[in-house]
Amino acid sequence: MELWFSELHSPDVKMSIRVDKQLYSGESDLQRIDVFESKEFGRILALDGDVKLTEKDEFIYHEMLVHVPMAVHPDVRKVLVIGSGDGGAVRELAKYPEIEQIDLVESDRQVVQVSREFLPKLSCALDDERLYIVYEDGLRFVRGKEDEYDLIIVASTDPFGPGEGLFTKEFYDNCYSALKKEGIMVNQHESPFYEADATACMRAHRRIVESFPVSRVYQAHIPTFPSGHWLFGFASKQHHPVHDLNVEKWMERGIETRYYTPRLHAGAFCLPAYVEKLLRKVEIRG
Prior knowledge:
7-stranded mixed sheet; 12 strands
């Protein structure tokens, strides 16, 4: 008998992956957590029935979250990661020796525990001596922080359920306050393709534009995410994501990547016409 894991990408579109077996299934206080083994995508982490990541394509998501801001900011020392309890973002950050502290805020302790046990390719840096894990709601954690972080990475789940608070105007305002004067915030920005995802994308972009003087959107191709076309937000107090890209400095680090390159970095901010049109609808300033 064949076993397939299926996820609805829209009311009329479903993605299915054949899986060999289910490695884990459990309920935390916040959500259902499943881990599957598949031939094509390796291990799959699903939260509340939606694919959070797969071993085969997670590197795209995590590299684009981390290396884009790290190639722009001139001197990152302290980083806040909200979400990504699987450890993927921390793994990429750990490649930078100049980073002195990484605060990982994860609302669901069980996600970290499951990732440590079943996703070693992602959780391999969760014992880095620079890492501090805080089990708390991200909105609550960042509230009241002032001038503390050089970089904030928001690797939230979708804008409903446990991750809903991470798409609010209050949250983005608090992130702005928590950043130092050269600070950068990046976030996963949903897909522009299906109607419900595009609506969430526009709503998040509008709120970020209202909170930050520099707000741009960039893209990546992630096969298992809805439509495969995924957006990220880049927000800053002063740095432009392309004009302030320091190619030479980033290349000198010798960091090995599978998706990100400085050349790709610049191109990722060149969006399709239909996406530009969506974003222009909600922008209140350039």
